[in-house]
Amino acid sequence: MYSDKLKKHSDYQWYIEPFGNMHVPFIMFGDDTIIKTLDEKVYEQGINVACLPGIVRASYAMPDAHWGYGFPIGGVAAFDPEKGGVISAGGVGFDISCGVRAILTNLTFSDFEPLKNKLADALARRIPAGVGSTGRLRLSNREIDEMLVGGAQWAIERGYGSKQDLERIEENGVIRDAQPRFVSDHAKQRQSDEVGTLGSGNHYLEVQKVVEIFDDKTAKAFGLRQDDIVVSIHCGSRGLGHQVATDFLPRMLKAAQQAGIELPERDLACAPINSDVGQQYLGAMRAAGNCAIANRQVLMHLVRQVFSEIAPKADLKLLYDVSHNTCKAEEHNIDGKTKKLFVHRKGATRAFGPGHPSLPNDIKASGQPVLIGGTMGTASYILAGMEKNMTLSFGSCSHGAGRAMSRKQATKKWTGKDLVNSLAQKGIIIKGTSFRGIAEEAPLAYKDVSVVADATEKAELAKKVAKLVPLICVKG
Description:
Elements (H helix, E strand, L loop, with lengths): L6 E4 L2 E4 L9 E4 L2 H5 L3 H10 L5 E12 L6 E7 L6 E3 L10 E10 H4 L3 H11 L14 H17 L5 H4 L18 H7 L12 E10 L2 H7 L5 E8 L2 H21 L11 E3 L3 H35 L6 E7 L1 E10 L2 E10 L1 E3 L18 E4 L7 E6 L3 H4 L3 E3 L8 H7 L2 H10 L3 E4 L2 H6 L8 H10 L3 E14 L1
């Protein structure tokens, strides 16, 4: 068993030293409980990632890590193109730039409570959700290409939000160097009517209540107060992102073979960053990232419309939007030198510390807002990036609770109807398009998000700022 090789470095950091074909160690963040219950497959996948060429410093797994496709979900790895570093579709994930957007409302719980049922019904009507869900937008081929280049800015130029929103989106709402020409026609066709839709699986739109503040100063900078109402949107690039990954995986297998790269498993298909396939995937992946950001921008506009009709007092302002299935070209300090690295974060959130030049000026001193989503029956957390984390894990941290059992296992244990009824008794309104989908996302099918958030903070990856609980959840 690979876990037998695990060594405890500190209470919240564990190592497997390089052996076999590993170039770097595998580092896992988490407390004793997380480590003891970790799937053995996570160790295997983390070790496999450490065998890829050009990897820098370590292969990492965040406290919410679980088994994934190629890379573990919750996996982080950075590659140096000057040392034969690679780009891997499995290290980004199929739902490219899936992420979370947190929105302030200027409402308190007492403002919200009388409007709860009306808001739930209106959001369920207005927000397209579910497998194959489509929105009101119907994009031509030209418009799709414009969206893939323009991201949230494209959406705002068409009336879906304001320029102020861009300041609170990772990379200011536009991922540069996107190349729509490397996105297949089939991928574009799948997205022609899916902009402004949630999709299915673990995606959601939640209306939440702030129930606890851990850091008064940072919470104030973020605009968070006890009893505030916040809206969170969790979704990604829908069919387009999935198709980009599907299209490039066989090409990467061939590229790896041509480059003489021995893959520990086929799911780690990759291509040298500087190869034609590597550069084409980067261009297509960035385009899919803009698709995801535009998607969340349009969804926020729909949410604003609902609130303006039912709760006119509301003033919805974006706190932050950050993706957690990405590969970004970033500058990091390696052995005293600034290096351009390609940082894969699969089910892991960017968590840059205070003062980072990419952060908005009004919250730069506080660190980047980090959004850890929970489940429809548990809490979510807002954290802030910590300076030390820039060297711990390339400024990365947990993105959610992390699954504790498969979707198939969950549907054998729970029914969607029973979950809706039991959560209603706790004051949580669930609006879903499929009872099966709700059962698959049962709260107890996930790890304890509070344990994950605590471990994230104690490992010094990000500090807790606020805890939120769900009041309304719209799911596919």
